[in-house]
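Schema walk-through. Below, the input block comes first and the output block second. Nothing else is stored per chain. Lengths vary across the set, and this one has 246 residues.
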Amino acid sequence: MNAYKKRIWSKFIKAIKDYNMIEDGDKIAIGISGGKDSLMLLNLFIELSKDKSKKFQFIPISLNPGFKDDDINNLEKYLKSLNLDYKIYDTNIWNIVFEERDEKNPCSLCAKMRRGILYKKAEELGCNKLALGHHYDDIIETALINMFYSGNFKTMVPKIKSETGNFTLIRPMAYIEEESIESYIKNNNIPIMKYECKITERKPDYKRLEIKNLLKELEVNNKLIKKSIFNSLHNVNLNYIMGYKK
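--- output ---
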């Protein structure tokens, strides 16, 4: 329990406070993919809701892009066991991406379609915020992926107004390390989806995997390498950024 409080709960609360993520009257949609990160986030919100001083509502929202029946049934069974109001929306995303359009690089289109539907459903439910399960490692890796492969300097941020839709995106696990999430999910026997995406059987996310492996190598000689990268994303001197004009 002490490890949970130190490595997960305290960091969850700190991120919420640092970025004023949750306010009285909020109705928050929680994006549920069925993976470890989104289910960790859901469990944290359940715990937070026990604090009666927090006057907010939340509702888990999941999209079914074409999962196997067993997977989606297991997810629904788990959500029911938590006695929560939840929504699962069937979509034809994978059919469009893999069958109708036969995309050679389907990840971008799939993500764009999922994001668009998720935003729309959140608004239809009257939510003013959408919580996503991105964590500390996601933020670091995304920054490096953009630098190495896209030639830009940006990453996921803990709180931001959505570019489309009238609501705010929040990432309350921004300070929580992936290793801590994996340990919690395993130790508490939380059922995560075994089958995540069609393309993972053929081609995993090599760019992210490459970045993960690079960080592991760098950590051998510098245990604080990820912390340094994460801190640098908060400590940008625009006077020394090429192309920046005052």
